[in-house]
Amino acid sequence: MLKQVFPYGEKDSPLEGTYLDLNLHKQASAGDVFIYANYITSLDGRIALYDEDLGEYAVPKSIANGRDWRLYQELAGQADIMLTSARYFRQLEKGKAQDLLPVGSGEKYVDIKRWRKKQGLKAQPDVMILSNSLDIPLAALEKVQDRKVIVCTGSTDQAKIGSLEQAGVQVIRVMSSMVETSRDPSASPRGYSLASQFTLSLRVTGKFVRQTLIDLKYRSAYLIAGPEVHATLLKNDCINELFLSTYFALVGGKKISTLLDADLPQAKTLKLLSSYLDTQENQMFQRFQYV
Ligand SMILES: NC(=O)c1ccc[n+]([C@@H]2O[C@H](COP(=O)([O-])OP(=O)(O)OC[C@H]3O[C@@H](n4cnc5c(N)ncnc54)[C@H](OP(=O)(O)O)[C@@H]3O)[C@@H](O)[C@H]2O)c1
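^ inputs. structure came back:
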């Protein structure tokens, strides 16, 4: 059971259904998209640790658990599209990703699939991948061939773009108007050094992702990538809500990932919307609004 601790005074409730009825796919106002992120973290703020055996960062086994995964699936159930990273697909190809993108198969998630159908949503959310390297293994993409796959990139590598398009992927490149120019204020009176005049940062911005989702008529987008994609969207204030599961364990480690992997101009404040204590596992589920 879950014990609701905020808002106060609610009775205990089963885990199943806790997030499914939030109707996140109906939150966006007309002509907008509702973007929400979800992480599980340890008490010392780790979302991933470097695993020497895997040779990759991975969610610590000591905090990953089926009850959190159920809520992860419920959030996926309400998404038109999932936002993820190329690294996820590189891990997926090597069999090192946490799981195939939801909504998961099997009896456990059949109710979520039924719910999606009833809501008039597609069987599976589409997938948007952020990547500048465009190193996205085609074999891993086959695992999501039942949905539309979009890649947002700053790359101009025609060979890689061509092979992705041949595999049925829609590749959307950042436009120059969206690109930030590197500045070196000390270099010239106009604030640009000779080198930086020609140095365009072609990284995908949060603004670009959000506008692309709106242009493509998506209404709800579920961010399941790690700290870099999270920071990309957060820097442009492009995320509406954060679902955070905190597992009550200290996992330590020096090669770690946290929720964010970037400097922010200032601390970001979040408003708590709900908080549940999981009496069966040693964890808490919280929902925040980015303000
Ligand atoms: N505990 C949790 O809840 C949780 C949730 C999510 C992830 N994780 C873990 O965190 C670790 C990292 O996950 P992740 O790889 O998805 O992390 P990430 O740091 O968000 O993604 C990194 C990759 O995304 C692409 N990327 C990010 N921002 C970009 C931008 N602005 N423009 C273009 N491309 C951009 C780059 O791909 P290219 O290299 O192709 O350019 C980059 O290598 C993994 O071990 C994962 O298991 C944990």
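Residues 2-290 form a domain with the Dihydrofolate Reductase, subunit A fold (CATH 3.40.430.10). The pocket of NAP is lined by residues 39-40, 47-48, 57-59, 85-88, 98, 130-133, 135, 203-204, 224-229, 232, 257, 261 (CB under 6 Å).
thumbs up if we can close this ticket
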